[in-house]
Specification:
Elements: H1 2-10, H2 23-43, E1 48-57, E2 67-70, E3 74-77, E4 83-90, E5 92-99, E6 106-112, E7 117-119, E8 122-124, H3 128-133, E9 165-169, H4 170-175, H5 181-185, E10 191-193, E11 202-204, E12 207-209, E13 213-214, E14 217-218, E15 230-237, H6 241-244, E16 253-259, E17 267-275, E18 279-291, E19 296-307, E20 316-328, E21 333-347, E22 352-354, E23 380-382, E24 385-395, E25 400-423, E26 426-453, E27 456-485, H7 498-505, E28 511-529, E29 534-552, E30 557-559, E31 562-578, E32 582-593, E33 598-599, E34 605-606, E35 611-624, E36 629-646, E37 654-674, E38 677-691, E39 708-717, E40 726-735, E41 738-743, E42 747-751, E43 754-764, E44 768-775, E45 794-802
Parallel strand pairs: 1-7, 1-8, 13-16, 22-25
Antiparallel strand pairs: 1-4, 2-3, 2-5, 5-6, 9-15, 10-11, 11-12, 13-14, 15-16, 17-18, 17-45, 18-19, 19-20, 20-21, 21-23, 21-24, 23-25, 24-25, 25-26, 26-27, 27-28, 28-29, 29-30, 29-31, 31-32, 32-35, 33-34, 35-36, 36-37, 37-38, 38-39, 39-40, 40-43, 41-42, 43-44, 44-45
Amino acid sequence: MKSILLCRSAFTSKHFTFLNIPHPVYKAAMALLICLFFSVLAFAQQQTGTVKGTITLANGNTAPLVSVTLTGVKATKTDESGNYVLTTIPAGIYTLTVKHIGLVSQNRQINVKANETITADFVLREDNETLKEVVITSGYNKFAKKETDGVAKLPLKNLENPQVYNVVPKDLLQDQVIISYNDVLKNVTGVSQGLVNGSNSFYMRGFSNQSLLRNGVQDNKDNSLEVANIESIEVLKGPSATLFGNSLTSFGGLINRVTKKPFGTFKGEVSYTIGGYDLSRITADINTPLDKEKGLLLRTNIAYHDEGNYMDAGFTRRLFIAPSLLYQVTDRLSISLDAEIYQQKSNDFHRLFPENSFTQTNPKTLDLNWKRYYQGNDLTESKPSVSLIAEVNYKLSDRWKSQTILSQTKHSSDGYRVWNEIHGDSVNRNIRYSNSNYNTIEAQQNFTGDFRIGNHRNRLVIGLDYYTNRANENFLIAYPFDKVKLIGKDPEYTNISKQTVDATLAQLSPIRNISSQSTYSAYFSDVFNITSDFMAMVSLRFDNFSSGGSYNVTADTTTGKYNQTNLSPKLGLVYQVIPEKVSLFGNYMNGFTNNGPVIQPDGERSAFKPSNANQWELGFKVDLFDGMLNSTFSYYDIKVKDVIRLDPDRVGFAVQDGGQASKGFEGELIANLTKGFNVVAGYSHNKAYAINTNPDIDGLRQWTGPAETANLWINYAFQKKALKGLSFGIGGNYNSKAYISQSRSTGEFYIPSYTVLNAVTSYENRIFRLSLKLDNLTNEVYWGSYVNQMMPRRFSATVAFKL
């Protein structure tokens, strides 16, 4: 006790003032570090050993998610590379069992000795007798693939991670016959669509969010995201700037797309989808080992998507090519290069903004013709992009690895965007023509260690990150272009075309701006096993942001240059009540946004600090019945401080004392109830409101998504021989009403609550798969948050041939 008191007194808040760490945070961090130090001394003498190894298949491929059991003591599963580790095993003789569906199980007797590590590798072969009976892998919890190193940048299992995250595997995408990226996120608890289909905009925990990461680094582009190259989607909940920065995350969380990777055998699949509203889609996934002996592997995904609209105009055409090359130079060194190449031509998203002068409260009362698109097919926008990721992984030793990543995304937009504003009984049509280019680069270096301090496992990542983007924007804006009647006939409705718009834009002067920004960051995250079942995480990010400002080409002036430095901490505790089965967790996480200087009405330049979001969260995770039941439940409380707002006492002046609150709970259930019967379900409740921003709206929910969401998908695959390969799936989403605007003076406008169901039936064998799908099964009439009616019921059919 005396030693602890001396350690605590040696560090006071004055030692941390130059780092700008909040007093409660430094106290919690110091208490946790002291706890870790003394726990090392307390447990250093335990007589335990470690068992580790790698499991591969007979063809040389890695074997992830293989069950590894030390009889009567502990169990685990292999990671994506086929590795496993069992720590703090009391000295003695045990039976080690490895098993997986479709593979022949193996047993081995091992002798664990104190303070020693035993390596036990296995090579598993296919169980041909089982494979004869199983046409598709339907007799296990195929949707519960949570084990990933990406969410923590460490080899950390779900039950060991104090953060809540969801993983949507490609198995679920295939079962639901998903062709739209927006539909992927409908499987994630608490995530709702932000704008309209294809807009890459979502709400999470009361904050807007975009999907800006691919394989853990930036993929910042403006076109609709393609699903053909997705292996899984990782959604981290809560402020996550500590490991991923603030440019790619929001206070609600982040969305990371994990892409398909090449492997050691030839395999392929070609599919074709046809459906209502002129849907036509072709995809191909071809894996080709170029030189298997030298470890040179190639996988290529291709998609062509052509889709119309249920409205009187509108279409999307997209060509997508995604090659992925892997070169396994040695058993320690691998080099990979991934690319995604888009070419998209489409009409802009349909939008109807209700202005405050509009007296109705929701779209149901508008009595509109929802098939009106308010623009023609010739007002299109082309959005090409090229995204490249080069990655070098090197195994420095048995305990340390190096990962070097370089990512670049270039995209552009050339064409027209239309947005419409409702004013009383009329609609103002506003048009922007843009010919702009964007370039984003990120370079990242990570060193990951998995080592022991005494008998205590320690997992540590130390990283450096450089992020920069540059925008060269050239645009014209007709605000408004014209006005047409909201209800009834109006001959001016069709008087919008490329010819009439170009004639109007030719009379305007172009706006040209060049802007840039860069971020230099360093971070670390450490997970320390106080005991085998009690873990602590301490993480910190140092972030230096530099804005090059915005250069106005016409005026030859640059404004908005500034620099800002911020620290982002993260703390977490996990205790496994039942090892490998039930864990309790708590976390403190931080996110931030940079704020530029403001020129006040009196000419004074006010410099503002970053706005910070701090989250406290408590919950539990379970993984029971050999993985058949996987669940996460949590309660969170997020508070944002230092939000810039208008000063109520001085007209036009800005002050930095506003805030925002968001709190709620989430629950997810992924289960294999019986062989072939799989369920994914989730429910979330969120309360979000502004604090000290404007008396007219403080305490009221604004445009932050619905307060309640629920998702459900049920899939059953028949097991009897006569019906083997046949499966049925049904499910959907519930969203409570979502406010577009709400104030005490002008009232409210909201999107009504809705429930949308989808259904799929499929038949699959070794040669082909046939799927029939009904989107919006009950033909529910519902609206997106841009006040456009969403797609009515649509039938589609997909046939896929396996190579």
